[in-house]
Amino acid sequence: MPYVELSVPRRRWIADLAEAAFAEAGGVIPVQPAPLIDEHGITFSSGDYGTAFDGMLEHRAKRFHIYCNIRDADYPGSTRARFTVGHELGHFFIDEHRNALASGRAEAHRSFIDNGSNSIVEAEANTFASHFLMPQQAFRKAVLKERPGLRGLLNVSSTFSTSAQATAIRYVEECQIPCAAMMFRPGKRPWPAISPALKKLGYDYGIAPEASALPEGFAAKRAYDAQATTGLSEIFEAPSTATFWFDRVSPSSPRNCVIVEQAVRLSQFGVLALLLFPKLP
Questions:
Q1: What is the C-alpha separation between 223 and 275, in angstroms, rounded?
Q2: Which of 69, 88, 101, 137 has the fewest CB atoms within 10 Å around its CB?
Q3: How far lies 227's CA from each of 135, 219, 232, 264, in Å?
Q4: Is residue 125 within 8 Å of residue 97, measured between CB atoms?
Q5: Is 146 exposed, middle or buried (CB count within 10 Å of its CB: 0-12, 13-18, 19+)?
Q6: E-strand spans in 188-268?
Q7: pTM of the full structure
Q8: Element (H, E) at 158
Q9: From the CB of residue 27, how many other CB atoms can be counted at a distance below 10 Å?
């Protein structure tokens, strides 16, 4: 789910656009997108569309329509469905996306939320959704109210009614302490997200091996073995070392410090691990 790298000015512009849309939707947490959809004359439908898409923005007969795919254990208003709707609103509010659809220069956007890293257009819509659902000022206040760690991250996720995955990416982006998130998803490549504070210390190439290949005793491995089928598992915690998780950190490196690894099973969606670093010089 992490995004391709957008330029800083472009990312900031999209974030500002999303937060203006949040204010237009009422500025209430958790945000309710339905009034915004109605106000802009967008029609909407949700249902089980199989594997055709997660969401889609279509332009037909001079009107825009959003489709939201509800399948498997998903349901209208779920955290995944909310992010999908926010993503499709991104395609509508970002001028280049909307105009390309309206002019016929682009076909309807068939979006797959977890594949946003493969496309600039999808990455931009993901960025919009993230800031629409988790506006920066409110998000930072919520993070500061919580103790650093996975429990606080999950509390923030609940406050904004966003998925643990989407919240983890923003949490790491906004966190003032050195930390990283690692997400292990069934049948998909694991991904890392590294905080700016940690990147400044040189930990910029995270390694996320398959969860099944993690050593016994690791928090992520214990969460993976928990096999929670509904809801969240308990939070597991264990000490670890930086050399295991980060490329270019050798066992003898002074940067190979002991870190705290916390992990939780997100039912059928996989395992989320948060790595917390000590205060480093």
A1: 14
A2: 137
A3: 33, 13, 10, 10
A4: yes
A5: middle
A6: 191-194, 236-241, 258-265
A7: 0.89
A8: helix 150-160
A9: 11
